[in-house]
Structures
1.
Amino acid sequence: MSNVFLGIDVGSVSTNLVAIDKDGSVLHSSYIMTAGRPIDAVQKAVRGAEEPLAGHRVVGAGTTGSGRTLAAAMVGADVVKNEITAHAVAALAVEPRACTIIEIGGQDSKLIIINDGIVVDFAMNTVCAAGTGSFLDRQAARLDLPIEEFGRLALMSKSPVRIAGRCAVFAESDMVHKQQIGCKTEDIVRGLCQALVRNYLNNVAKGKNIMPPVLFQGGVAANEGMRRVFEEVLGCQVIVPEHHKVMGALGAAMLATHAKRTRFRGFEALHRSFTSQGFECDGCANACEVVALLMDGVTVARWGGRCGRWESVEAAGS
């Protein structure tokens, strides 16, 4: 029975799971839509890994993403890290000389600057959807185009149209206008890719020194049109890792390899009933909202307070 390490990345759009061996090779991965139900998504991801990992023993588990604390309490994680750290760890495993990470997901986008293998700066955009994957999904639907075809069509464009990309609402109305005046679909698609890249560089990357090697991660990295536009604007090669969609989970799994003794609850535990509930602490004027996770009606973890009075999630990191 060989040892494996699990990494789980719980985001607002997707919940990703990666299992690696001691050498860092990916044995299993999954990409599941969170759909506003992170508990269900985590259970589905872990249950989906049970059969592929039959004959393996989980000796470390890590979580990341906006729902990392919830996921950690559910699975019994040994490491809980923010997504900046997780993405950087996975990127450096792919390209040890990496200096810049461009990460564009469904609801947000990030820029991570690395110097000599250490994260020295980062920026995030969680305000406007114009620079995210959900925006591309909506426009693909409006164009009656499978999102998988977006990149291929973008590369066919000979005369891309300019689309205002600073705001999702303006970009959408501008795209409709271009449709109404008869612009080719491939030129509109290429224009959308260019608008998203401009939005990213003018907002997330504003004032940052982008140096190669550059890695492009997140679901949007599957769009070849986006990668090509980034290369044209930055004037350098942009590397898309093999597991670009699940790099956060991959990084969490790699961080879990340092666990001395695992707290992983086991696959059978994820078949139990999990619920969460919140309450307001009256211990001081902060009135913190504390979240409690219940497994089969029994509280197994609490978090959310500033003073640590209610904390009971035994996991390292932040």
Note: Residues 314-318 have pLDDT under 50 and may be disordered.
2.
Amino acid sequence: MKQLSLTKSLYVLILSIFSIQLYAQNVTMPAGASPAAKISQTIGISTVDVTYGRPSVKGRPIWGALVPYGWNVQSFGYANKAPWRAGANENTTIKFSHEVTVEGQKVPAGTYGLFFVINPDNTGEVILSKDYRSWGSFWYDEKNDQLRAKIKVQETAPTELLTYDFINIDKNSADLVLKWEKKQFPVKISFAVDEIVIANATEELKGQTGFSWQGYAGAANYALQNKVGYDQALMWIDKALAQNKSFTTLNVKAGLLEAKGQTAQAEPLRKEAISKATEAELNTYGYQLLGLDKADKAIEVFLLNTQKNPKSANTWDSLGEAYAKKGDTKNAIACYKKSLNLNPSDAVRISSETSLKKLGAM
């Protein structure tokens, strides 16, 4: 009986070990020669995320060899013609937070597999596939294509590790570039930033943000500064004014009315706004006018600030800058010297002294 019991126990042990081996999961290990990487870029309030594996050149011939030219028959999956997976290991993926334009074509928000085709003459294609979960391009199927667009491959400085980067970034767009060996693949990505911001503000103001005047004023000011959605912005600023009649809210409404050509209605609001302004608010407003090349208007605002705050060195330094931009050197020098006589902070002192040196007065 003891021998039978021992045999039975040994059987159970062996079966248990087999079961553990059968169902065990591998522990997470490094990706080895092609480490995983991720790059993200914000454009406006939208984001683009690229996740990929980074193979190295390692002295190997790349184009037309390791990465064959054109479309290639895969040895696994569907044995299909497929593009290059634009990286190593799993699918290279690209994720857009909002609807986007890629190489001139509209693409819905979401995640896509990113593929490229390169030809010997440096022409190529970029492909976005709705099937982004597959491994590499082994199961690529063109019926899942969301986008296919022509691109021009460019020569670049040697890059050992395959690298994605964003260049030529501006308010609405950026170029995503894949760099490897001595080539780069540029893809133009654009968002309708103003439309997205206004739509997002509309939704956010339905939530907790809508219980304070700052949210409405901020959204209205964005519309004013970017010259979009004036009618909606006027409704927003009126809600802000109902909670807080201040320089900020009055000034934004005056600006919106001026933008709509309603100058007569804007003028009293602007005067009321200036009468409520703090030193810092007047200073900021003056620099906004300077940025719009309205030096005369800026001088009026800065001059008023010196009258309201005559012992502030900063107000005189700012007025001097406005005169200098207009080309009135005499008054500019007088203002900078006045600033230095009022025990300025280090930052203001350096600003006034630097300006005087530029004008040859120090």
Note: Residues 36-191 form one domain.
